[in-house]
Design brief:
Blueprint lengths: L1 E4 L5 H14 L2 E8 L3 H14 L12 H14 L2 E5 L2
Antiparallel strand pairs: 1-2, 2-3
Helix pairs in contact: 1-3
Length: 86
Amino acid sequence: MLCDIARNLGDEQLERIKTLEQDLGLTIVAFSCRSLEPQREERLRKAMDELGPVLRAEPAPADETQLDRIRSAEEAMGLSLVAVQS
């Protein structure tokens, strides 16, 4: 699976993420993910291992209510959302 920072988000998606950030008091990073063919997946994994992690941010401690709201937004928008401490 390949995930990168979500681009070209619509106004509604951006507003939903901003509202979620304000309501939860967390910073939310949105990722767009897609599956790759197994051979490409393996090549990408090897290349990423050589590069090391790109995004270095501590995950935010979240309670179950916050996680439920984040999961709900993920499902509605088709994105992976990560809450980080800012």
